Amino acid sequence: MLRKAQLWVNTQAGPTADPAFRAALRSAIDRASLVDQVWGKYATVSKQMYPTGMIADGLAADDWTFDPAPLSGLAAGKKITLAYPADRPADQQAAEALQTQLSATGLDVELVPTQDADAYGWASDLSSAPNLYYRVPFPDSNHPDTWARLFWYNNVASGFGGFLNFLGSGTTAGDTAMDAGLPAVDDKVVAEKYDAAAKELHDQVGIITLADVPDVFIAKAGITGFAHWLPMPLTLALKVLRVG
């Protein structure tokens, strides 16, 4: 299982409500340096909006050229808040590294350690929510809808998704693509629709993906059969482990 380190972006309040500012902020993030500093060999730079293996290579791209200059030109006098889970030291390290990169452009970045319970309430009052939220979620299955609908669905009031769309990102066109992809039985149609949904989020800069982070386990030599217990990250299915 590969987890995805990413940023949720508040597209409706503060400096990040400006599309040009969001694009400049994203371009100021050096993912290669971030991965090297925070995870080293235990992660790779994200290339897609979905976790690795959920959609074909070349689809749902989340690429940009690192260039801090655009943000440097917009940062003067601006302040943003970057929230992260308060109970996870590794997430604090990543948030601090992001703060350092963004602050180098002249942007004032305040870190906000946050309890999970507080994060679930942001969508109801985005004007007082943070501008960015860093987190490392994991997929429930290999179908792209289990990722896209949970994190990207914009019409939360419909009850059809967006239950972890913390900062209100997403678009109507993205929702429509997901709704068309979910009942599709043709693999090409599924890929087309979820690629379209991902493109909406990428173009909006509603989500910024950073790294693909695998689970890492340390085990005695000779043990084989490692497999995940899917409902939880960092958890092995012990019954399938074998000696030899």
Automatic annotation (TrEMBL):
Keywords associated with the record: Signal
UniProt-listed Gene3D superfamilies: Dipeptide-binding Protein, Domain 3
Gene Ontology biological process terms in this record: peptide transport
InterPro entries registered for this protein in UniProt: SBP_5 (IPR039424), SBP_5_dom (IPR000914)
Domain Solute-binding protein family: 7-155
Xref: SUPFAM superfamilies: Periplasmic binding protein-like II (SSF53850)
GO MF annotation list: peptide transmembrane transporter activity
Protein name: Unannotated protein
Organism: freshwater metagenome
